[in-house]
Amino acid sequence: MSDQDKGKAPQREGASDSGAPSKKSSSSKKNLPPKAIEALLDMNPALKSELATMDPETAAKTIANLDLDQMLTGLSINGKNQKDMASYKFWQTQPVPSFEDQKNKKPVAQGPISIIDPERVPKTPGPLVDGFEWCTLDLTNDEELKELYELLNNHYVEDDNAMFRFKYSQSFLHWALMSPGWKKEWHVGVRASKSRKLVASICGVPTELRVRGERIKVTEINFLCIHKKLRAKRLTPVLIKEITRRCYVNGIYQAIYTGGIILPTPVASCRYYHRPLDWLKLYEIGFSFLPHGSTKARQIAKNLLPSNPEIPGLRPMEVKDIDAVYDLLERYSLRFDMNQAFTREEIEHWLVYKEQPGKDQVVWSYVVEDPETHKITDFVSFYNLESTIIDHSKHETVRAAYLYYYATESAFTENQAALGARLQHLINDALICAKQEKFDVFNALTLHDNPLFLEKLKFGAGDGSLHYYLYNYRCAPINGGVNDKNQPDAKKMGGVGVVML
Ligand SMILES: CC(C)(COP(=O)(O)OP(=O)(O)OC[C@H]1O[C@@H](n2cnc3c(N)ncnc32)[C@H](O)[C@@H]1OP(=O)(O)O)[C@@H](O)C(=O)NCCC(=O)NCCS
């Protein structure tokens, strides 16, 4: 499988292959002075933490043998898997900005790239290769939900080393794909005509974004997946064109999607961070490393958390909190260049867990109710997304909590130190709650105000970035919370306020 096949993968904590000595080419071997090496490693914490697991002699040898070109590629957050525009045979035909557009420093006229004439949108799907046919999945039918689950469970996103694969549960898919206003036609599948087997999918749900004050109706695209045996046959462009057609037919001309690979052209790029909750398990499965000179006991102690949340008044969110959370999240979201214009109904759907027979809990939300005023001052949420551990004798899955939406009144005090201090408490309590719920790791991106707490709360830099894309919409680049060195940076906040599943 080529690197192009990997999307928003569950990447290992601080791991990197970019230093593989066997890939060294003599032309790129350079003797860098120690200061330059240090600067390069500071920019590439994944590699740095891999080197930290080695004894000094091996680390020195590894550095001496490093392929500088590879090391530099690893540095460039926006460089991973990037080809030049002419090589994107499909994407260069689509209404998306080119890399050149994005580099151009001239002010960007924000808005749709192409104006769609509804009359000219084909009423029927385009042709598929012989032996396959289009289908619309009925996800209210448990059998079809299970088919999608099985396709994804076996063929969806893996990390670069094929150690982990996302395992979206059936309850998760139910939650993610049947949000308010969902449309059956946007759950697109491809079946093998003879066997009826589901071999590919691409799905969308409707929502509204605000991009620098402009409201746009969009489809959130997700779960693009092709059976491993049907890869590299140019089926992706066919799937994308079909869901685009189905969106156009419904009068939606823009979309938002994310991925771990570079396509033309990210509007924003965020970096993954991971906070171990069960360090030993993460170590056993090869997700976390033992830094050189440390011990397992020390790593376990370092990641220990109090047994109970500490903010007075923190409790699970209930239906009665929806209005307060809606109001708080709305005000908080408006601080970001790109944010989701939630409706009250969406808040209820996405944040409030209601027990249902046969369904597992997917989202956990907590509010802080001031013990004196009873006002809701903060809220925080996370969702459960497990990954299969491929070929491991002891552990089958890793249970990951992903930080979802949160908001706090402290954001409106104009005092970044106070906001940072409050978020450290709030997110630390979320870590404690996730630990109580038996999660192994807590993941977060550098979006929202996350740079204010990630490192303080012992989140480690991951290998992966998540790139945000807008379809048929042009706007100036949006900050993803990281600087040129790919480090979380408070000066680069205020950009991304949308969390995609
Ligand atoms: C991603 C996946 C569908 C691509 O399939 P593939 O068989 O490798 O690629 P195809 O031959 O069908 O199509 C190639 C085209 O799709 C584009 N493409 C590849 N991955 C893409 C993605 N995640 N999103 C959008 N376009 C993508 C390629 O850039 C290429 O177009 P180009 O010529 O303009 O560069 C497949 O690898 C897969 O199912 N992977 C696991 C799940 C996954 O990563 N999903 C994406 C989550 S973001």
TrEMBL record:
PROSITE patterns registered for this protein in UniProt: NMT_1, NMT_2
Write the record's keywords in alphabetical order, separated by commas: Acyltransferase, Cytoplasm, Transferase
Pfam family example for this protein? NMT_C
UniProt feature coiled coil, ranges: none
Which InterPro entries does the record cross-reference, listed alphabetically? Acyl_CoA_acyltransferase (IPR016181), NMT (IPR000903), NMT_C (IPR022677), NMT_CS (IPR022678), NMT_N (IPR022676)
Q: Does the keyword Transcription regulation apply?
A: no
Family of the protein in this entry: Belongs to the NMT family.
Quote the subunit structure annotation.
Answer: Monomer.
User: What PANTHER family does the entry give?
Assistant: GLYCYLPEPTIDE N-TETRADECANOYLTRANSFERASE, N-MYRISTOYL TRANSFERASE
How is this protein named in the record?
Answer: Glycylpeptide N-tetradecanoyltransferase
Q: What is the lineage of its organism?
A: Eukaryota, Fungi, Dikarya, Ascomycota, Pezizomycotina
